[in-house]
Amino acid sequence: YFIILLTWILALSHLCLLYSPDLREIVFIIQSQNNSFHVRQADKRRADLLKQAQGLTKKPPVVLLLHSLSHNEGDWSILPLLPYLSYSFGKNSSWIVFLEEETNVKMNTLIQVLAKFDKNKDWFLGKPLHDEESTIIHHYAFAENPSIFKYPDFAAAWALSIPLVVRLANKVRDEPLKSDFTIDLKHEVALYIWDSGKGPDLTAVPELCTEPENSPQALYCATTLSSEPPLTRSLLDVKPCIGFFLPFALVPVIKKTWEKDALFLEYYSDHADPTIPTINLGVPNTERGHCGKTFAILQRFLSSAVPNTKWLLIVDDDTLISIPRLQVLLSCYDPSEPVCLGERYGYGLSQGGYSYITGGGGMVFSREAVVRLLNSGCKCYSNDAPDDMVLGMCLNALGLPVTHSPLFHQARPEDYARDFLAHQVPISFHKHWNIDPIAVFNKWLKDDLRANPSDGLNKSTKTEL
């Protein structure tokens, strides 16, 4: 009986392989970035995929790095790439699978998962996220019932069938993409695919997971998150960053939360106030943009007025940030490179636009980046111009990349999907309206080994730092 059972198991295994997609029919795209640290991480992920494929097929699958596909700045937003993907893989492939640098893939399991879906139909597969309430970062979409719309968690990987890629590519060709803001890419990609109900909804795939790779819950997952810390250098090599800060109406909150962790911190205004203390930069306060003041800060950073340090952090008065976690993240990067780090947004990416770091989540610059920015002669067109967008235009003109980290947040914790934050160790949040900022800091940004897992600080499930 044992021999008969074993024979049946082997026969079923061969049948599964017979109807499963050939690995050569799957195109993997790693959502990589043009920064030396991220290139190394993406190269490791590609090497792992190809190593797994060696045991399954004689010819390896196509594995592409997103940042190297073209010189078009907007290609990180993926939609402009669809015509290229359709032209290059529309005839000989069945699936395009997108994954992040930290996304582990179990190749055998993924093949079996994709075999459940008819490759000749339109499929949009992923781990679904949804909003608990309408949020500004999604332009208050689906305000009456925010949870009804599902969009993919990119960290779990997501996939498009080739027929859907071809159809979307034709749509991109026929109807040019709107030249407006790219804020939350995963939500905007899902909206474009859904096409006001004319396209497919996101199909939930339980095997696409964001569990740590070594957790018991990951046993049946096709994707998991890497549990290996991505640190490349000792924290001892990272000088604590300088924290600069623009308006100062909310100074009491800062003093009760993150100020004590900043080795060197300056507050700026249009007049000196020794009780805070603030520094007068000679630039008037403005109600909206802070471009003039931000460029004055950049100049001061390179002057003898402040200690010579490797990193500059600029935040708003209503930004909550974890300086220790930021130090851990900065240990991954080489400060001798022109690093511009934060939450990346885009403006007019499909029509020659640019990327920029949204200011509310915090903008981090290496000294080399500041030197190149100022040496370029780039400047504000007015003191109240949006500083983050002007800096983005300058970086784009210089050909310097904006490096994205999902750990910086332009909005409040309530504005993000609960499952999205569940596998993060966040670095910052922004905006104080309708919240207790000190309570938010203590729950989300203050490190406490005694924290309850339900507080969103369970380190065993946090893999991005």
UniProtKB/TrEMBL annotation:
GO MF entries: glycosyltransferase activity
Keywords: Glycosyltransferase, Membrane, Signal, Signal-anchor, Transferase, Transmembrane, Transmembrane helix
Record organism: Mastacembelus armatus
One family name in Pfam for this protein: Fringe
Membrane topology type: Single-pass membrane protein; Single-pass type II membrane protein
InterPro entries assigned to the protein according to its UniProt record, in alphabetical order: Fringe-like_glycosylTrfase (IPR003378)
Protein localization: Endomembrane system; Membrane
Gene Ontology terms: cellular component: endomembrane system; membrane
Full protein name: Beta 3-glucosyltransferase a
Residue ranges constituting the Fringe-like glycosyltransferase domain according to the UniProt record: 90-170, 251-435
Signal peptide: 1-18
Gene3D superfamilies assigned: 3.90.550.50
Domain of life: Eukaryota
Main location: membrane
Family to which the UniProt record says this protein belongs: Belongs to the glycosyltransferase 31 family.
